[in-house]
Design brief:
Blueprint lengths: L1 H5 L4 E7 L5 H10 L5 E6 L10 H7 L11 H10 L12 H16 L2 E6 L6 H13 L5 E8 L13 E3 L5 H9 L6 H11 L3 H10 L2 H5 L13 H10 L3 H13 L2 E2 H10 L6 H7 L3 E4 L2 E4 L2 H10 L2 H14 L6 H11 L5 H16 L3 H13 L4 H17 L3 H11 L6 H15 L4 H14 L5 H15 L4 H17 L5 H14 L17 H13 L5 H17 L2 H18 L2 H18 L2 H18 L2 H17 L5 H15 L3 H8 L10 H12 L3 H18 L2 H14 L3 H18 L2 H17 L3 H18 L2 H13 L17 H11 L4 H8 L3 H15 L4 H10 L11
Amino acid sequence: MLDAARRGRSGALLIRGEAGVGKTALLEYARRRGSGMSIASSIGIESESKLAFAGLAALLRPFQRHLPALVDRQRAALEAALALGPPVESDRLAVAAATLAVLAAAAEERPLLAVVDDAHWLDAASREAILFTARRLREEGTCLLLASRDEEPDALGEEGIPQLEIRPLARHHAIELVNEGADIAPAVAAQIAAATGGNPLALQAAVELLTDDQRRGRVPLEDPLPVGSAEASFGRTAARLAPATRKALLVVCADGAGRHSAVVAALRCLGVDPQELGVAEGAQLITRVGDQVMPRHPLVRSAVYHGADKAERRAAHAALASAYKEQADADRRAWHLSAAATGPDETVATALEAAAGRAIHRQGYAAAADALARAAELSMDGASAARRLIAAARGAELAGQPERVLALAAASAGRTADPLLEADLVLLRGRASRDRDPGWAAAALEQAAQRITDLDPEREARLLLEAAMAAERLDIDRAVHLAQRAATATREAGLDPTLVDLVHARLEHYLGRPTAQSTAVVVPRLDDLAEVEIALWLAASNPVPDRTQHAFIDHVVAAAREKSALGLLAEALLTRAGNQFYLGDWIGAVADNQEVIDLAAAVGRPAIGCEAHGNLARIRAFQGDIAACQAELTEYLRLSRTLGMVGYEDFAGVYLGELALSRGDPREAVRRLAPTAMARTISRARAGLIEAYARIGAVEEARQSLADLEVMVDRTASPSGQVFVARLHGLLSDDAEDAVSAFDKAVDAARALDWPLETARTELLYGERLRRDRRRREARAHLADAAEIFEALGARPWADRARAELSATGEHRALRSAQTLADLTPQELQMARIVAQGATNREAAAQLFVSPKTVEAHLGAIYRKLSVRSRTELAARLAAAAPSGLSARSV
């Protein structure tokens, strides 16, 4: 990895293993071998795990001079996070994107080695930023090494980066280590190797505890050998020190990695001579690095801190709190006061609440949640505790931690009689539960709304709207009723009802009820995340996604990239990918869905990644790619089941049914589509089921289902439904002229809808019917159009079917060359689009959250694949391949 970094390639590696197994030794080895490289280090410290961006600040400290080179939004976010600039409003992951940019800028000067030890103890904000960076390193010349202890609750595991697991030493190697630099009898060495299980640190600590007679085998070792673990060995070493030295050692361990001057001040507060620090350092239990004094190893801290009684620990924290007097140390002081508290203390709770406020201004939402939760424990009354717990849950929600939201919300239950606070609590729980338990979420949100009907119509409206969106997955009738009530509450509050009215209209659509099928676009305030999410939900559920809506989603995507708002970006890309499927830009849809999957882990939203896999399965189904479709479906179902998401089995059935139609297997299509809920709504799945019925000769079933569909479409005037009904009438009609009339109507409706796939399927069925009726000349134009659109979409099985039918009319047409854009990877396509719009490499890197070097490397590949030599040529090539050019007759 070091050699690759020197050649300009990047990589990240997670080193895992138990405490004392040698992870730190490997990191030290890397540092020694890092000649000619810039080297940056950070270490996770348990006592600093509640301080937002503490670990990241240490890692980036040598590279602060590169901050001015960042784009403005990223520079401001990172400066705020590192307390180098004023607070700014930004997405929590803007800091993560800026971290990658800083390291990439540093690597421009010389190859970079970044080392993070004890990553399991990093504060949540730092860990998020560092892991985000690790997953996106490509061409920067950077080697990022992280070490994590397996047995810790926050151990790093499946993080999407390569891993190296370090195991204990084999017996013969353990004996070799025992004998290294020591005169140990062979039998004693073997006994120590067996007793420590091959853990290197435990081996060394055990040897240090032996007397000379024990080393030489003159005196038998205790049975069992009292080594236990390295932690226990360190504890016994500390226990042999004088009381004053142990007290000094405890202060160091209570602070974790504090300033030497603060530790000295704390010792003087306790009446301990600071010279005792030298004694502890001589015992190899603490070390000093610059102005910091810290335990030699995390196990030293654990052994000493937990070996002291509670009163001793509280005294050490109180002394440290008094030592940290500067405003810059206010957060550290608040946490030491918290650890010193013996019971409820409003002064300390207020200090922690203030620390949470500072963390929020720096986008350290997880740290804010921790501080508020502890402040709630120290609150003097139930109402204050509930208020702080609810605020903590909001912080956890912003940090993308739904499980933490539920835990904090549960802790606050019953602590306050304030119905408005209770309503806020239920709103948080409902949003966190919507994917996994929509039934409970809808019921709880509705009940909370009922309790505040006369108190706060605005809150009531928001609760009812969220309840409607939850109920939509289980009971559309109930969802419509809730949306109606939300609209009433919105008007009573004097608020703009447009958003809630659109939700109501979209829900009514699913039931086939006579309500305005509005395709109006609501442009939300981009600083109101809840409003944006509702607007995107509306776009995703729009019965007629069109180019006006697509322009709105493009606006949100661009704004999210501009703000480095990765959470909003993932939502918007997912919605845009759905639009692109209907509007015919399947290459773009694949690219957007793949970027969503890449972002899902970073934004803490696996449900979004799950939906992206489903979208990809749908595209692969129509492209007839069996292996790719099934692979996407496997991951889609795995995630949905793991997350407890409701209704996703139905969607999987639809995708498999569409795959069967693409493969020409109508019986399998019926088997997959008939049981799904979508087969009873105005949907592409229902139209596909009716077509499959007709193909297997189940004409009565097809006609009955079509009659039911026609009733719903007549009620709603659904544009897509009108295409389906007319097309299927043409397919099922016994009279040739009636069939032609129905197909003409279907073609006109499909062209007006501007959904290339539906246009092509309509033209295909029309051409097939005309050929069967021996009207070959008339059939050719329809079949040729169908073949052209299917080929442009990449729907190869459908294109083959259209060309086969065309050949049967006597016209033979060669398959045109595939779109060259299809040769680009999803990331290359996103990059090509952004660069073609005029972005520089640096600007494109900021928008895609990669480094300029990665953009440069990808642009070289893009130019080669598309045979272009400039940004101007690239823009022209992309414009020529725009989906609106799929077919002259389809526009």
